[in-house]
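quick one, four chains, predict together pls
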Amino acid sequence: MMPATDRSLPIALLRARERVMGPIRALLSGAGLTEQQWRVLRVVQESGPIDPTQIADKACLLLPSLTRILQKLEEKQLISRERDRQDRRRQVVRITTGGARVIADNIDASLELMNRTRAKMGPERYEALLDLLNELDQIDLSG
Amino acid sequence: MMPATDRSLPIALLRARERVMGPIRALLSGAGLTEQQWRVLRVVQESGPIDPTQIADKACLLLPSLTRILQKLEEKQLISRERDRQDRRRQVVRITTGGARVIADNIDASLELMNRTRAKMGPERYEALLDLLNELDQIDLSG
DNA sequence: CTGAATTACTTAACATGTTTAGCAAAATGA
DNA sequence: TCATTTTGCTAAACATGTTAAGTAATTCAG
């Protein structure tokens, strides 16, 4: 028998994510960015010059998705790309002045949303949730 | 400053979901079904005749997505649809014999995967995670 | 009863998720 | 060194996510 939807882990994860991302998406749409574009932009700013494979890892995206996102961000002139001199398979991605400005204009509201979530839930439970999610991510389900 | 990715709630939710759904997707692809198609099929079987709005609610899908999914499931003859006699805006969705067979063929392995996750994580922590996710889902972030 | 909401979907458009294939550069090994 | 494999990324195809419009049926206010 199927568990009630609130006891189904996949659906509970889906709903929780939607609850958290809804307000963030609303904020970012005002800046003309999607959630994923925002994530990539922030990774690039925080890390400095970085290649797509590492971006994908940090932003939790698959490379085919990232390819399209980088193309969009480059069109919008929020990032720049060039080939790596040492290894010409690779690219070096950098944030532009415009990209940095977009982050500066939205970062406070974004962090405020997460802080509000944390406060409403209670810091201890919020941290406990993060711990459990990370634990779940590290489980080996293969055997 | 951006939290490390494992302390970012949106990314932690993303990774956890991917970890849980990966094996389930692999199982279902053998049956020619996507994760969402499977979710819809199960909701319809468990509920009996049901309209799309309720399916969307239970399966945690938006109506535009559900419209396409129902079309695919109808093509595959796993569900049937007809207009509601009382309210002709509505539809009544039913599972077909073929749909019931697909569920019967895959339900055991599907439940087994979730049970394995639960066991590896420990039943108590698993339940605690579900509780925290549901709590997060019920937070009012508007104010 | 009738025109203005409202409801239950459907369609369309754009972005991402997911899988598979492809290509060029670099590393490997006989 | 040269064929093979691996790596880093891109392209394509199909499915879903998300938002905005559109349509037909129903409800509601006046």
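Chain B touches chain A through 48 residues (CB under 8 Å).
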